[in-house]
């Protein structure tokens, strides 16, 4: 049974301490344990016991004038070990300097003077308790998200983001390291023949055997569904030698799982260096796959062709931008065709690279290949919410499968909304066309969770790839964004007009509103309005911009 949370009262006057405890017991006694101490030293012993029981110390109420350590000194010291605990000074003799010290260095939650008003004291403690548990909940949600970000959801081994973080840390300390990549190329065949669950069991067994074989001398990462990385402080040759004998286990038909033998065809590549060693090893892995060899391929300078080098340079810029928080939103207005006002904006990802702004056509595919698309998406959401916490407009943000497939994503969104004090109904998440719910089954439940929070959902690029009629059976969207392929030729193409007309009628039937994208000519806008489409978006009204224009320019 879990310990009840604690409220700790500290005062050197017995009668005051007794009176304070009795008052608090009447209001909080059923849900909280009320502890008392007559000095800071006694309080520290009680706090040790609370910590040992792993219980919550929600509130400390402390006098200033006490034997031994003074109240402000005690609270300042306690802030270092219990920053979340709410600290209240209840005293009639504290000088202004002591109160200032507690406020500035002890994060004093409130100061109350003696004799206290009973109602004011009770209300203050209730508010302090609420604040404590709100902060605790937010920390737990952020920790859950951090675990999701840095560890593979199936095997719980550190993932690609964790590797990037490790390489960056080693780079700051100017440490050379070696890396070896192992890719199981029979991955698709095993899944097709035996199913994904069998493959996951095989992969987990490979990781376990590899970890035991290396005896914790090297760090193992599960990067992707078919790729493992091994990071070492030893030389590249020493790392290759350590893995060479392990390769014999995988080459053998004696690799058994539940009585069935498997032959695992793998590719191996290695490199050394600092933060760039992964990218070098990746080039070597491309070479190993091209040569269809099971030998170890080491990175050499001649592998860096101009095309590959350019891709890796851009990938480095992506990771630098993520670490330096240079993922920035650009905004494009969405016109309400009834009011002729722009009251909503789509947030579009850009990367700031010194004096240059990189657009998605430069970095998006590489971000997906390297796995950094998820961090770009999370930073975009955070930056967009922060921006619109100071602007009274609705806004929409694109989601990829990288965000939707993680169970804690909706909780993270909820914590961001709470932090920036944004009404969830102001936020629309646009589901991109390359998401397949049959391949990422958790994505659908994440969308439902977002709708439960109060956010709205739009199907982006409706009519192409996965964004077809079957999606309407999977969830109830609030908006359909008609793909620009249909809109840009609307005046000249009768088939496009009929298709758009059908989509509009379908949207009305399911209660969804329609947004026409790529509206760049008055002739297109005239037809959009004649079809009764509620919203228009395109260069005719506004190009993507780093800032929202003045309100006077948002009305046409």
From TrEMBL:
Tagged with keyword Membrane: no
Keywords: Phosphoprotein
PANTHER family: CYCLIC DI-GMP PHOSPHODIESTERASE PDEF, OXYGEN SENSOR PROTEIN DOSP
Signal peptide start-end: none
Domain Response regulatory: start-end pairs: 6-129
Keyword Ion transport among UniProt keywords: no
Residue intervals of the EAL domain: 311-556
Protein name as catalogued: Putative two-component response regulator
GO MF term (any one): cyclic-guanylate-specific phosphodiesterase activity
């Amino acid at each position: 049974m879990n310990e009840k949370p604690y409220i700790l009262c500290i005062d050197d006057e017995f009668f005051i301490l007794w009176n304070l405890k009795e008052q608090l017991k009447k209001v909080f006694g059923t849900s909280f344990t009320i502890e008392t101490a007559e000095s800071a030293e006694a309080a520290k012993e009680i706090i040790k016991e609370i910590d040992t029981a792993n219980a919550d110390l929600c509130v400390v109420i402390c006098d200033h004038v006490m034997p031994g350590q003074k109240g402000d000194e005690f609270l300042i010291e306690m802030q270092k070990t219990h920053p979340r605990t709410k600290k209240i000074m209840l005293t009639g003799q504290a000088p202004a300097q002591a109160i200032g010290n507690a406020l500035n260095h002890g994060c004093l939650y409130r100061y109350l003077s003696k004799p206290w008003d009973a109602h004011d004291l009770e209300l203050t403690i209730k508010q302090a308790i609420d604040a404590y548990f709100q902060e605790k909940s937010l920390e737990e949600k952020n920790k859950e998200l951090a675990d999701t970000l840095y560890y593979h959801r199936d095997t719980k081994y550190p993932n690609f983001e964790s590797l990037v973080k490790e390489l960056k840390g080693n780079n700051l300390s100017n440490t050379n390291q070696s890396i070896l990549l192992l890719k199981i190329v029979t991955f698709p065949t095993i899944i097709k023949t035996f199913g994904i669950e069998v493959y996951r069991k095989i992969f987990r067994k490979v990781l376990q055997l590899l970890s035991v074989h290396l005896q914790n001398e090297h760090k193992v990462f599960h990067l992707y569904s078919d790729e493992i990385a091994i990071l070492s402080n030893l030389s590249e040759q020493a790392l290759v030698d350590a893995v060479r004998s392990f390769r014999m286990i995988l080459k053998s038909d004696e690799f058994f799982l539940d009585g069935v033998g498997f032959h695992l065809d793998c590719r191996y590549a290695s490199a050394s260096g600092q933060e760039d060693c992964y990218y070098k090893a990746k080039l070597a892995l491309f070479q190993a796959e091209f040569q269809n060899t099971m030998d170890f391929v080491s990175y050499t300078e001649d592998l860096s062709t101009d095309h590959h080098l350019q891709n890796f340079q851009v990938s480095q810029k992506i990771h630098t931008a993520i670490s330096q928080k240079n993922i920035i939103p650009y905004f494009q207005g969405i016109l309400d065709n009834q009011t002729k006002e722009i009251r909503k904006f789509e947030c579009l990802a850009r990367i700031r690279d010194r004096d240059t702004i990189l657009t998605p056509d430069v970095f998006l595919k590489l971000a997906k290949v390297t796995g950094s698309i998820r961090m770009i998406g999370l930073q975009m959401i955070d930056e967009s919410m922060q921006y619109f916490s100071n602007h009274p407009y609705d806004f929409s943000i694109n989601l990829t499968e990288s965000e939707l497939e993680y169970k804690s994503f909706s909780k993270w969104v909820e914590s961001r909304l709470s932090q920036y004090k944004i009404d969830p109904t102001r936020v629309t998440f646009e589901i991109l066309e390359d998401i397949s719910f049959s391949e990422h089954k958790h994505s659908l439940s994440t969308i439902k969770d977002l709708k439960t929070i109060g956010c709205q959902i739009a199907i982006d690029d409706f009519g192409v790839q996965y964004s077809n009629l079957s999606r309407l059976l999977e969830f109830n969207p609030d908006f359909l964004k008609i793909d620009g392929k249909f809109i840009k030729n609307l005046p000249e193409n009768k088939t496009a007009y009929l298709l758009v007309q059908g989509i509009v009628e379908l949207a009305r039937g399911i209660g969804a509103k329609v947004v026409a994208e790529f509206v760049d000519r008055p002739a297109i806008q005239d037809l959009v309005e004649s079809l009764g489409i509620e919203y228009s978006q395109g260069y005719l009204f506004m190009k993507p911009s780093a800032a929202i224009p003045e309100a006077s320019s948002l009305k046409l």
